[in-house]
Amino acid sequence: PIVSTDVGGTSELIHDQQHALLVPPRDERSWCAAVQRCLQDAAATAERVAAARRRVEVELNFDRRLEKLSAIYESVVAKWKLKQD
Asked: How many domains does the chain have?
């Protein structure tokens, strides 16, 4: 089960309720409630875990990230070339 605090870029990688349960930082009650929810609803927890795994395998794998990074570099170079002309 995935429970995480909603800080930094966490919510960009992990979508609340879909891939994990996100809780506010420094909120012990929310953290405990989220862990308890994971333990009490095994089916929903299994669905979130499977969805998170699919997301990592499909969208966040090395090849996909490399494609995105390459596209960014290509865009930057293309814009730079336009300015040079």
From this structure: 1
